Amino acid sequence: MKQNAQYWDNITKTIQSQYSNIRGISVVYNNETVYEQFFKTRAPEQKFNVASVTKSIVSLLIGIAIDQGHIPSIDDKVMTYFPEYHFNDTNRIRDSITIKNLLTMTAPYPFPAWNEPFLRMARSEDWVEYSLGTLGKGCRVGTFKYSTSGTHILSALLTKATGMSAREYANQNLFKPIGIEEIPLYPMKFDQEHIFGNKVRGWVSDPLGYSTGGWGLNLSISDMVKIGQLCLQRGVWNQKRIVSESWILESTTTDKNNYGYLWWIGDREREYIATGSGGNIIYVNEPDNLIIAIASTIISRPKDRKYLVEDIRTLLELK
Question: Per the database record, which ranges form the Beta-lactamase-related domain (predicted)?
Answer without folding.
Answer: 25-307
